[in-house]
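Objective 1b. Sequence-to-structure analysis of Methyltransferase.
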Amino acid sequence: MSNQRWTEVDNYLNKHLVEQDVALLCALNTNADAGLPAIDVSPNQGKLLHIYARMIQARRVLEIGTLGGYSTIWLARALPEDGKVITLEYDERHAEIASQNIRRAGLEDKITIRPGAALDTLPTLHNSEPFDLIFIDADKKNNPAYLEWALRYSRPGTVIIGDNVVRDGAITHPTPQDENIAGICRFIDLIGQNSRLTATALQTVGSKGWDGFIIALVNH
Ligand code: SAM
């Protein structure tokens, strides 16, 4: 099947199951108008993150990789009144657009954007309570380091999700030059070997092509 068919099917599923309100639609339009790359999660994936967060009654979420805040909005909307998403973004322009989108969605009290490289901002979170859900979706070469931080900021029951772990199947044909694929392979390996984690991964196809999510639960 082609990307076009996958997109048609995503559109069908979204039409029946995934209602996007003005704030979510505006976020995607604003991102496009501002020239941000369309590498946000798809609507059905955003809703999946939202459902995961609700399933575990998440109150505190950490996101690494904000872009224009599309996934951030889905996640924040899953949280109770006193819930909080801390989202880390390297690119100043992305952070600025995300902040506009978040304000438009009325979620500025629930979401804090920490600008800067995640490996610089992660250590500054050491005084926070553990997170209930951690979504890793930034530069894939640093995924092994992000996993270490995620484990440090977890508690038993925390769910750690990583996006883009399949990358058109490249994980089974890594080339030495591609540090992002190397980062993903090491990330999968580290998760698989960690006795604190119960994990699986799923391949996905859809409007964002052929990719996949990894999901790991911190054991009790
Ligand atoms: N989670 C977003 C969504 O679904 O709407 C998409 C995030 S996009 C795939 C990855 C983002 O990570 C980009 O905005 C990029 O600028 C950011 N990024 C890349 N390297 C980073 C780093 N070292 N620290 C923090 N953010 C980084």
